[in-house]
Write a sequence for this structure.
């Protein structure tokens, strides 16, 4: 018996696709980062203490007492009709005109990522994704054995010229990407947004090259300054699969997200969803629907915006005050994340155990690349700790970096 088979007796039986399934860096971190003495700037958990729990509780209680026989029953694979209509109202805030028939409700947007990958990707197919990209999407893509090709970003998001170059060089190698995966608003992990100009340009490039776009937008309504920008979907509804979620604007525990897709794609997604989960959880869907109907959900989003703005300010001013001059970072105007770049020679993954010893945690940049790059960067999130804890966390991190730079 070799070492691998002693650890897992079934190791020779797994399907080839499981080779891409490895524990994410975030999972490995969870155990240490949640110790109370560690200030975690690692996780992307919404600050749920800002939710009116009594109101949520009465929504849920009424649901059981008044509509229990429906709410606790199986439901449609595409999702509850009324909730899909309400989702269209939410999306209208970002310039999306869609019909409830175009919407499929999913188990968080994470399931929508899975469904889209499942229906489009054969092993070895190419997916274009920003550099860096969302770790959960990269895990999904890996589990279907996709080849992810990263496209550069800057402070205005994905760089259109780089997108054009990448598509062309793939084409000359006889490769055609299946889709472009992009997070245009308050990017996880980069903390930047795609400018309006670039939205038009990216839509145009994808039209020119007949490329599908997978637009992932969990944070679009959590901007701090202006009205939300129009979604990419609004620029190219015929070639965008749009993903939304109630995880950040309401609560992730309900696991209610959605996708809007061109008719044929949506049909395939519904079939794939039926095979995976029969139907999205009816109880959660009706709870979210009742919440949207009876509670001031737009005010709640404002409350979240104000809370996260204050925390973003705390993080940016702490970084400004305390970071060594060779360190740079992005300046988010919404969402949860700041992307920090270390001076050459420093390795954020190698440094993490020393940071945890100094009682601060972050996510190393390598988690956000499919190709192993990203070691000189790291992701900080400001959504969960209080402003005081954020400042103290940055103080600890700056101390670790100063020690590293002196070595
Ligand atoms: N996409 C992005 C960019 C995210 O940041 C997240 C959550 N961290 C998700 C998708 C998944 O969200 P959910 O499944 O909770 O809707």
């Amino acid at each position: 018996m070799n070492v691998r088979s002693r650890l897992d007796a079934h190791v020779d039986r797994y399907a080839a696709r499981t080779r891409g399934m490895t524990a994410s860096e975030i999972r490995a971190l969870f155990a240490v980062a949640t110790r109370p003495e560690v200030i975690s700037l690692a996780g992307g958990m919404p600050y749920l203490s800002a939710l009116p729990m009594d109101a949520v509780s009465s929504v849920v209680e009424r649901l059981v007492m008044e509509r229990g026989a429906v709410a606790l029953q199986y439901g449609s694979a595409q999702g509850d009709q009324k909730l899909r209509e309400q989702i269209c109202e939410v999306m209208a805030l970002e310039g999306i005109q869609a019909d409830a028939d175009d919407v499929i409700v999913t188990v968080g947007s994470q399931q929508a990522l899975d469904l889209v990958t499942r229906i489009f990707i054969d092993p070895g197919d190419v997916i274009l994704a920003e550099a860096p990209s969302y770790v959960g999407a990269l895990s999904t893509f890996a589990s279907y054995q996709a080849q992810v090709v990263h496209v550069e970003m800057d402070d205005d998001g994905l760089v259109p010229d780089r997108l054009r170059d990448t598509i062309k060089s793939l084409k000359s190698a006889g490769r055609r990407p299946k889709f472009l995966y992009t997070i245009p608003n308050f990017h996880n992990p980069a903390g930047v947004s795609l400018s309006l100009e670039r939205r038009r340009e990216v839509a145009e490039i994808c039209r020119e090259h007949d490329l599908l776009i997978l637009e992932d937008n969990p944070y679009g309504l959590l901007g701090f300054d202006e009205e939300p920008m129009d979604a990419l979907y609004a620029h190219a509804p015929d070639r965008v699969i749009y993903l939304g979620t109630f995880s950040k604007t309401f609560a992730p525990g309900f696991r209610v997200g959605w996708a809007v897709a061109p008719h044929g794609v949506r049909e395939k997604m519904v079939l794939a969803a039926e095979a995976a989960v029969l139907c999205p959880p009816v109880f959660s869907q009706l709870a979210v629907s009742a919440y949207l109907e009876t509670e001031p959900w737009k005010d709640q989003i404002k409350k979240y915006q104000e809370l996260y703005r204050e925390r973003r300010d705390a993080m940016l001013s702490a970084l400004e005050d305390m970071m060594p001059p060779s360190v740079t970072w992005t300046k988010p105007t919404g969402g949860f994340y700041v992307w920090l770049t270390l001076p050459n020679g420093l390795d954020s993954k190698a440094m993490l155990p020393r940071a945890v010893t100094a009682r601060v945690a972050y996510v190393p940049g390598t988690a956000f690349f499919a190709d192993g790059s990203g070691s000189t960067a790291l992701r900080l999130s400001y959504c969960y700790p209080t402003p005081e804890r954020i400042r103290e966390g940055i103080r600890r991190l700056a101390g670790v970096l100063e020690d590293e730079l002196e070595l």
The mean pLDDT is 95. The radius of gyration is 21 Å. Residues 44, 108-110, 134, 136, 183, 188, 216, 218, 245, 247, 252, 257 surround 4'-deoxy-4'-aminopyridoxal-5'-phosphate (CB under 6 Å).
